[in-house]
Amino acid sequence: MCSVNDDGYEDGEQFMPKTEIAVTEAAICKKCANNKGNVILRGKDVYCKVCFLASSTHKFRATLGKSKIVRPTDSILIAHSGKAGSTALLHLIKAGMHESVHKRLIFKTTVLHIDEGAVNGETLEERKSRINAICEQTQNLEFQGYITSLDQSISESEPNIHTMESLEICSHGDKMLTDLLNTLSNYTTKQELLHKLRQRLFVLVAKKLGCNKVFVGDNATDLAIRILSNISVGRGAHLPFDVGFIDNRCPDIMILRPMRDFTRKELVYYLNFNNLQIIHSPELTTKKDQYVSIQKLTEKFVTDLDLNFCGTVSTVLRTGDKLYTEVGNNSDNPCILCNMPLDTTVFDTEISAIQATMFSRFVSLQGPQRKYNTNDVSKIKINEQNEENRRKNDNCCSCNDTGCCSSNKSVKLSYKDVEKYLCYGCRLIFQDANSLNMLPPFMVNAVRDKMCLENMRQEISEFLL
Ligand SMILES: [Zn+2]
Ligand SMILES: [Zn+2]
Q1: Could you tell me the distance, in angstroms and rounded to a whole number, from the CA of residue 162 to the centre of ligand 2?
Q2: What is the average per-residue pLDDT within 258-287?
Q3: What is the pLDDT of residue 25?
Q4: Which one of the ligands is nearest to 423 CA?
Q5: Percent of the chain, pLDDT > 90?
Q6: From ligand 1's centre to the CA of 57, what distance in Å?
Q7: Pick the residue with more confidence: 345 or 379?
Q8: Cα of 59 from ligand 1 centre, angstroms
Q9: Each residue of 202-217: pLDDT tens digit?
């Protein structure tokens, strides 16, 4: 049997060789060439503790410095989950504040912990003990801290926040949040929604506390996983915002990722050398098998591969950094959930993934007997247009004379109306939704506002004609 495959290589020849892990015992630090090695990175580079910690600090400062975006006058909200990334982040900032004058970090900092215990299956006691540990850690590092709970992200009003000293647990909105998650049919969309709600809450709390930037602890491994899983869940168009150092989708509050050059392994070494503890808490898919969600399966794929091929994380991350999409420049009409420019606007001449999905759905609903041709695509468009016109006529409660559309509560909505204001990835989260009750209240209200505005614009333009 021929052993040459399609690419002209012998079997196995084209694959990258596995990284051979060097033996650390008696190995000497490659940086100072003097001390005995304590750390081995990339399977071959040996460092002593002193050189490793010095290079970690340098890497953090370089990530912050090269963008020139963080200024001494900034007020920064640091999102602290208790995991390795944000714990190391707090420690690095604290150390930076005690550097010599010309190197000192002098921006104002506030720490925020979001309590997600309600969705992660923690008991009230477990939540209390986690918050207690977070509070202790934050106080030991001399930061001012606040706590809020994830359900604050779905309500229409300003989020409730408490100082860490109060050790208060807000459990009033737990049911609303768990009910919302229970309406979603799979863990991929549940994880997506939680991520978007978390991002939204960072911005809401930053606004409330007068902060103009948010630091999150996303590390290189997390981001490599997110690059691949985002593409799988239809968010490829938003990659530069979701994984880059700067996420400036909200014009007044920037989210920054200063830990993006640290791998999980480097963070573990950093925390160990500084006697810092990770505060463990379960996640939504903890104790679930690897196939439960696209994100969890991607995590296993990336971490397993990186175990044998040490360049995996950095290769994926650097490749992701080079990706750029035009959609990022159109910010007039952002998605009401993730605040990204809508990637669902399709021009007549373009063939898009959305059209392909619509056609696939159309074909599936028609049954196996029918034959199709390209004209069917235009039928779908016409059907959509008719549906749109019908909704426009239905939306107003025959109130043109009385002007009751000025109150946004009077606008009748269907899920299809909401979908119009969602990007492709966010549409997929709610693809099984068939009622407005299955959506977060802030989204429904945002759509009412937008539709009201559109109705008013249309009325004005008709009046002027
Ligand atoms: Zn050394
Ligand atoms: Zn979106």
Answers
A1: 29
A2: 94
A3: 60
A4: 2
A5: 52
A6: 14
A7: 345
A8: 16
A9: 999 999 999 999 999 9
How far does residue 436's CA lie from ligand 2's centre (Å)?
17
Q: Which ligand is nearest to the CA of 424?
A: 2
Separation of CA 36 and ligand 1 centre (Å): 7
Report whether 155 contacts 130 (CB < 8 A): no
**Beta-carbon count within 10 A of 221 CB:** 25
What residue has token string 């700067």?
246
Tell me how far the alpha carbon of residue 334 lies from the centroid of ligand 2, in angstroms: 8
| pLDDT for position 67 | 84
Q: How confident is the model at residue 377 (pLDDT cuts 50, 70, 90)?
A: low
Structure tokens at 366: 């028609």
Of 364, 342, 325, nearest to 422 (Cα)?
A: 342
Closest to 196 in 3D by CA, of 235, 157, 161, 225: 235
- Answer whether 278's CB lies under 8 Å from 84's CB: yes
| Amino acid in position 218 | D
For residue 268, how far is its CA from the centre of ligand 1 (angstroms)? 18
Are 74 and 108 in contact by the 8 Å Cβ rule? The answer is yes
Q: Which of 78, 125, 88 is nearest to 281 (CA)?
A: 125
* Residue type for position 434: N
Q: What are the structure tokens assigned to 186, written together? A: 């799979």
User: Of residues 206 and 363, which shows the higher confidence score?
Assistant: 206
pLDDT tens-place string over residues 76-101: 999 999 999 999 999 999 999 988 87
CB-CB contact of 232 with 298 (8 Å): yes
Instruction: Please tell me the number of the ligand nearest to residue 30's CA.
Output: 1
- Structural domains of the chain sorted by starting position, each given as residue range(s) with its CATH number in brackets: 67-329 (3.40.50.620), 353-421+434-464 (no CATH)
Q: Which residue, chain included where needed, has tokens 């550097």?
A: 99
